[in-house]
Each structure stands twice: as structure tokens, then as C-alpha cells.
Amino acid sequence: MLLVQVPEGSNVLVVTTNDVPGYEVKEVMGEVFGLTVRSRNLGSQLGAGLKSVVGGELKGLTKTLVQTRNEAMERLIEAAGARGANAVLAMRFDVTTAQDIGTEVCAYGTAVVVVPVA
């Protein structure tokens, strides 16, 4: 089982698996998602262009993508909580380029209510 980092104070468990060992799914609330689109920073674009010539990690873009994924996760958790779920199963990320001006990141999964198995 892989646990995904959950924002502090959240009571929604997010996993990439289809079940949670030791828990039973009592109710399926449906698909939930968290979506965000980030525009590209001109400075990081220039740095990325130069770095692509010499090779190496594009640290500015990596940092932006991590922040964007975290924001999408937070929105996913908010959506699950709003439906009354206490867990999200089969969480995945989808990342696409949005009209060549930014990056769209969507975190999605199935919102459920789980209870410990007695």
C-alpha cells in the first residue's frame, strides 16, 4: 500500500491502491478530482532552455510541478471531504500542457467511506 502525503489536519486517507488493508469500504461516493493550471514563469523558461543545452535537472520547473501537484491533491481532498468521504482510493495524477501557456495537473480517484475491519 502506498500512502500519498496528506495535508496536515486532513482526515481523508489517500492511497494509490484499490483498497486499504484492515479497512472495509462501506460506501462509494464517486469520482473526485482536484485540478489546477499553472502558467509558466518566464525566468524558469529561460533557465530551462539554457539547462536543456548543457543537461541536468530543471530545478525551477521541478519545484513548480511539486507545488502544483500538492495544490491538486489539496483540492482532491477537499472534494472528497465535501462528499462525506474519509478516503480516496486509486488516486492518480494526470499532467498535460494547457494551450502551450501552462501545465494542467489533475489528481483524481474514488471517494469512499472506509471503516476498520473488526
TrEMBL record:
Pfam families: YbjQ_1 (PF01906). Gene3D superfamilies: Hypothetical protein apc22750. Chain B. PANTHER family: UPF0145 PROTEIN SCO3412 (PTHR34068:SF2), UPF0145 PROTEIN YBJQ (PTHR34068). Belongs to the UPF0145 family. This is UPF0145 protein K3769_18805.
